Amino acid sequence: MNRIITISRQFGSGGREIGRRVAQELSLAYYDQEIVNELSERTDYAKEYLQEIDQIDPLPLMPINIAQSFAQTIDPISEMNHDIFQRQSDLIQELAQRSDCVIVGRAADYLLRDKPYLFRLFIVASDDFKIKRCIEKGEVNEARNLKQLQRDIKKVDKRRARFYEFYTHQTWGDPVNYDLVINTSRLGIRRAVDLVKQIVENRQLPTESE
Amino acid sequence: MNRIITISRQFGSGGREIGRRVAQELSLAYYDQEIVNELSERTDYAKEYLQEIDQIDPLPLMPINIAQSFAQTIDPISEMNHDIFQRQSDLIQELAQRSDCVIVGRAADYLLRDKPYLFRLFIVASDDFKIKRCIEKGEVNEARNLKQLQRDIKKVDKRRARFYEFYTHQTWGDPVNYDLVINTSRLGIRRAVDLVKQIVENRQLPTESE
Predict the structure, then answer these.
(1) Cα–Cα distance list, B129 to A112, A194, B153, B184 (Å)
(2) pTM reported for the whole predicted model
(3) Which pLDDT score is estimated for A209?
């Protein structure tokens, strides 16, 4: 029974870093960019496009329910995105079979919802924390000023939310869809890593029964 | 520097029980019904009314922003509720000064936001878990059938959300307003208690700096 940890996160909250560190410190497989690489080898899609897939609005300017029925029948770009999502989903299922692992983003929490040991994390942080972190990582530069960064933080999350809602019919970031939501601006990344490790190490299995 | 743990929770999620157990096992003061008792001794308000105060819609059928300006000037019931909220807030500040403690509900997370050691929890659970728990506690009976319980679960949370939003201008249950959100239908109440205890015992202070 593989231990599978899925990490969803607000842009800039440090979710990816938490995932990377947990995987490293517990010697679990880690899948993020790796999924893009593998997909691009298996398909004809450009890596750059695959990279951004969960930030591409499935069908902008349409209510989700209309977009859903529309997407797979008429619009060629949506059809392509749908195909990518399908292949990515198959790959995620395959990886989850292979070994213990950490998977970042890509609605993996939903795709793997029937797995017996699944730990679904959502990582949030205050705006100040996210901006400070992005600045430290050099994401404010000649190509992007502070105001643009603030806009981007909102934009990326909005798109992730629409992507998630489109494919899962669930609300992105609604705590009920996850097992634990950590606010890194309060607990800090190191403590978040330790908290997650402790639960995974002790095999404190998420369970519906008490 | 007192350790203050505030617990906000969805109705039926086991939040109150988590609070009670953490307080008991760590020998912290616990404030829930105690606040009602104390308030009713200090004021002329009936205990029964004080009990339900965070489930009374500040001003029903009005957008929050209109209700806010309207409430304190015209409507006598709103004026009374506002007075209760004020006295309750003062009492909560007083209790937080007194010793380490656990406080359930009452927007305490917001009221005490400037305290140096504050751990703000929000507890959620799946509908199935909440219903099962309520049934086990005998909350389905001659006076209330299952359908009514399901309605009540939604209704209580909706009112708590409006109460919270009215007084704090924040969204009730939005993970960014808390430090940790625990899904008890997945982690179970016992594990939730242990998780919280561990953070409090190690004085893993919530902090804005990493």
Answers:
(1) 21, 28, 12, 8
(2) 0.89
(3) 43
